[in-house]
Specification:
Layout: E1 3-4, E2 12-13, H1 26-43, E3 45-52, E4 55-63, H2 69-95, E5 99-100, E6 106-107, E7 120-124, E8 130-135, H3 140-149, E9 153-161, E10 173-182, H4 186-204, E11 209-211, E12 214-217, E13 223-226, H5 227-235, E14 243-244, E15 247-248, H6 250-257, H7 269-281, E16 288-289, E17 291-297, E18 306-307, E19 310-321, E20 324-331, H8 336-354, H9 362-370, E21 374-380, H10 381-389
């Protein structure tokens, strides 16, 4: 809504009109100022009035701070929904016998994936020496150390951090809900994920999720779709034909995808895969109901183990609603040598592409060798709240926006 200045009829909705001639008395001008100040307080903007020789010059300045009562009141119902969802999810995990944990934010390594970026800091020890630390991108390393220590079922509402990410679905600091089950297959945590999402929807009373014109019923039976089947259906590509001995054949995938996406000379197999996923597959997922996309190709296994019956794919899944990725889960890799190999390859690619690399957490790799068979999930809690509350943007469902933003 914008405001029309009508000296006879007063403020009304419509384009902003500026008059070159003013025949109003001073008290009329003051009345207009009060109307504008009231309007802009409700709309979250600040009105600047400059009076000079009986003329009124009006302009809309930057939005008022997020903490002004008028603006905050609009977000308060969404924040109440956040609290209700957190309470319901915590209650469910406690009923299932999970222990809630709190792990450290400052880590030796923030995670070793090529395209994940983390804020870096330096600590000064008591003796004056300095140590580099990173704000974690996930609590995964610490949680797996707890599995190695003997914890059977754990969950955490973790504050995590990402550089180079900001948008309607991304924040530089956000809440990741992660949980792990020792001695459980990844089918078990798949089921957990569907139940957690349904509890969030139940907590707010929303009947269906809606985002950018797409809808999904969180209570309906989910769609289960392999990555290979999704690529065949939505991109017309035989993805598994491009994987040989667990490695992606870059040229073969490029030839199949060339008419569907733009491909740069230095794009890797994973780059081409990601472009196809984002442009052709993800927008079609979670339509009408949740989609569980599973059996990711081996080159995208990350920290997941290979599927025993078909080493071309890994025990990795993601859950989508309205085209939005909500969760990412693994049947966890417990082979420390293989994990080291994957991390090293990812950091080599990060160094080539971004001219930086993160250290390996040797303590984590030692724990991987000792941890039991397990499965785990990382769920974007803020995204879940956004869908379950009906908010259009993720920054409307966090208690305070990113520092420096209004």
């Amino acid at each position: 809504m914008r405001l029309s200045l009508d000296m006879k009829g007063g403020p009304e909705a419509g384009p902003l009109v500026r008059r070159s001639k003013w025949d109003a008395k001073r008290n009329d001008i003051n009345g207009i100022c009060r109307h504008l100040e009231r309007f802009n307080a409700l709309s979250g903007r600040r009105f600047l009035a400059i009076r000079s020789g009986g003329l009124l010059m009006a302009e809309l300045d930057q939005p008022s701070p997020w903490w002004t009562p008028a603006r905050y009141a609009d977000r308060r119902p969404l924040l109440a929904a956040r609290s209700a969802i957190a309470k319901a999810v915590r209650a469910w995990f406690e009923e299932q016998g999970f222990a809630e944990v709190e792990t450290g934010i400052l880590q030796v390594s923030p995670g070793n994936e090529t395209h994940l970026h983390a804020p870096r800091t330096e600590l000064t020890r008591g003796d004056g020496t300095r140590a580099t630390r990173y704000l974690r991108t996930s609590p995964e390393f610490a949680c797996k150390k707890l599995l190695a220590a003997g914890e059977p079922k754990i969950f955490e509402f973790a504050r995590v951090f990402r550089d180079r990410e900001r948008g309607d679905l991304h924040l530089p600091e956000f809440t990741m809900l992660e949980w792990y089950r020792a001695n459980a297959t990844y089918d078990a945590v798949m089921a957990d994920t569907i139940v957690v999402i349904a509890h969030a929807a139940q907590a707010t009373g929303i009947g269906r999720f809606s985002f950018r014109g797409k809808i999904a019923d969180p209570f309906a039976e989910p769609e289960f779709l392999t990555v290979a089947a999704a690529f065949e259906r939505f991109a017309g590509i035989d993805l598994l034909a491009t994987i040989v001995d667990g490695e992606g054949d870059r040229d073969r995938l490029a030839a199949a995808a060339r008419e569907r996406i733009g491909i740069a000379d230095d794009d890797t197999w994973s780059d081409i895969f990601s472009k196809l996923l984002v442009e052709h597959v993800e927008p079609k997922l979670g339509q009408g109901r949740l989609t569980v996309l599973f059996e990711y190709p081996a080159p995208e296994a990350a920290l997941a183990r290979a599927k025993a019956a078909d080493p071309r794919v890994a025990e990795r899944f993601e859950v989508y609603a309205c085209g939005v990725e909500l969760a990412n889960g693994f049947g966890e890799l417990t082979d420390a040598a293989e994990q080291r190999h994957r991390f090293t390859a990812a950091m080599d690619e990060k160094a080539r592409r971004y001219r930086e690399r993160y250290p390996l957490d040797e303590d984590f790799l030692a724990a991987v060798a000792e941890m039991p068979e397990a499965s785990g999930v990382a769920l974007g809690f803020d995204r879940l709240v956004m869908l379950a509350s009906g908010a259009p943007r993720i920054d409307q469902v966090v208690w305070t926006p990113p520092a420096g933003e209004t």
